[in-house]
Amino acid sequence: MKLRISHETTYGYDQPIRNLVQSLRLTPSVFEGQKTHDWRIEIPGGIRGPGFRDGAGDWVEGWTLRGPAEEVSVRISGHVETRDTAGVLRGHREMIHPLAYLRSTHATTPDKALREAAMSLKTTGDHLELAHGLSALIAGTIAFRPGVTETHTTAAEAFALGEGVCQDHAHALITVARLRELPARYVSGYLHSTADGQAHEAAHAWAEIHVGNLGWVGFDAANRCCPDERYVRLGSGLDASDAAPIRGVAMGTGTERLAIRVQVEEMEQ
Amino acid sequence: MMVHYNEMFEGEAVREPYARLSEWVRTMPEDFRQMKQAEAEALFRRIGITFAVYGEGGDPDRLIPFDMMPRVFEQAEWRRLERGIKQRARALNAFLRDVYGRGEIIRAGRIPARLVYQNEAYEKAVAGFVPPRGVYSHIIGIDLVRTAKDEFFVLEDNCRTPSGVSYMLENREIMMRMFPQLFRKNHIEPVDQYPELLRRTLESVAPAKCQGRPTCVILTPGHFNSAYYEHSFLANLMGLELVEGADLFVDGEFVYMRTTQGPKRVDVIYRRIDDPFLDPLCFRPDSMLGVPGLMDVYRSGGVSICSAPGAGVADDKAIYTFVPEMIRFYLGEEPLLNNVRTWTLWKDDDYRYVMANLPDLVVKEVHGSGGYGMLVGPKAGKEEIETFRKKIEANPSNYIAQPTLALSTCPTFVEEGIAPRHVDLRPFCLCGDRIELVPGGLTRVALREGSLVVNSSQGGGVKDTWVLSE
Hints:
The complex is a heterodimer of chains A (269) and B (470). Chain A has 269 residues and is of the alpha+beta class. Chain A has 4 helices and 13 strands. In chain A, a hairpin with a 5-residue loop joins strand 3 and strand 4. The termini of chain A are close together. Chain B is of the alpha+beta class. Chain B has 2 domains: 9-334 and 406-467, no CATH class; 341-403, Dna Ligase, domain 1 (2-Layer Sandwich), CATH 3.30.1490.270. Chain B is 30% helix and 23% strand. Chain B is built from 14 helices and 23 strands. Chain B has helices spanning 19-26, 30-47, 75-99, 104-107, 113-117, 165-178, 180-185, 194-204, 228-238, 294-299, 317-320, 323-331, 348-356, 382-394; strands at 9-10, 13-14, 66-73, 139-148, 151-158, 216-219, 241-243, 248-251, 254-257, 264-266, 268-271, 304-306, 338-339, 343-344, 361-365, 375-376, 399-403, 409-414, 417-426, 428-431, 435-437, 442-446, 460-467. In chain B, helix 2 packs across helix 6 and helix 3 crosses helix 12 (323-331). The two termini of chain B are 37 Å apart. The chains are: A alpha+beta (269), B alpha+beta (470).
């Protein structure tokens, strides 16, 4: 697929802020499943800082904005040619050993229920089969329902609630995978449309699980599938906060309003 | 009964390096000694050096007892130690470069992958990034004990931000001020070049993008930190700015320091704050001590951080057991300094051995420090041993065990005159374009009779450490 992406994140402040510093992971990954063209990151009024590819293979870019500013916009645009690799992250260059993805974070700390669920699956010893089983288990336990969880909801909380959004599915899947000694991580990106053809108008997230010979394989429990050509991968981390496409701080005392607009459209052939 | 090596004697005779000191002590009038002890204490109070050593916590305003009787090494002894320490420092940095790169030592099956990559101190954020000159740990504090004339053991390595060097410098300063005649009679190698060497070390690892003479700063968590005195002391001696996180900011591709003349670009940061607090955009988002955006500048080569984030993976107690293996693997040499035989309680055989021999062993928590949470078998009563046994049973992988070492003693001033007390040693090895070690270090002494615990929180004191010239 040829996807045109535009993504704008706007922060509004009731008191002007100064000295904004951001670390952005907003550039599509380089691997066999996607090719990126004309990618632009812009923050009007900001200064582009250091850019580098980190050990996880993500392109990281720092930005600063001296201010004062009452509004800051992070604007992304470009297009990506995608190809279905059946979820396998083939040809992705990275330096981090998979075992570094076995540690748990606050959001992915297991409780008794997650432990029992993870251990309930019997396996023949085939890691891929186990990963699929865990993904189906999470998909079956957490129903997709926006608005019931928030940014800080943990895997254990969402699992107990039985409802949540893609972030919650990814957190829960990562947690159970790690319990089964499978390295797992959180991936942030975009999704063109769900399987039923519905356009997806928000940023998306899923999990990647490291399975033996295949390496990293994506699992989108929220949509009961593995990422295909409808998906655009940006970057990864131990959990949503670690993989956040935008991390930033600014000096200011006021409150912040956030507006996000994401468009992922298929381009004319 | 364990025999402890007394560093002053060879049989009945006083050893050559202690000859003059022994005479000095023997002829010292009692009232003179008391007067000098009071003077030393007053001097320490005046300069305000009262902090706890090695981040042990405790009362930050409490004075650590200073013992006026120096500990002495002869030249040849020291040269042997020096070679061993520098060898270890090279291997530790080679290990860090390796585990943040291709991980050859793990591929070769010499160190289990889990111990490294699942280690809390392993920072995946710096995987693949090589800091200037490939140096990760720029100041390495290596804790040593002695058990015989020619037998030294390394107790632990400190690759992050080892403290205590200000004591090394102040102990010497105070001894020279109080007893100048001792320094005329004995030929003692100086240690006061340490700040200059540290500054040179920091400058030598400035990033490639640095223009002109590097601007170095010391980053402190602030005055409430127990080692704040040391941070400001070193900044003063090196002529560097002492800054807190809020004094630095990222603008574009670099880090700047706020000054009265406007922003000044910073090239090297000697940080005395822990990894999780360095940068809220990369590590703990709630950290107020760090500099937002610092890690992005670091990883793109705009600033150097000493020690490198993630350096701690080389110094925990589980990795420690593999340091001799690192020396063989990276340097192709045999280790010059011994490790203490260590049983790791997550291994079944080791577990059985340790549980059967608790009264003879020292058991430590893997991440513990400061002499707390540890069992000294031979000094513990039955009840204490049984309580500890239950703690181990509940979480074996949290513990390691070592034999009780017959720590050497040095003559030390006590109430009744002079008596042997147990000591250890922390030298500070500097790694930049060169590896430097000032002749000396910090000697800690267990002031309680028979005690093997030298930590200041448990009744430890400090001594000046002499290396005699030829």
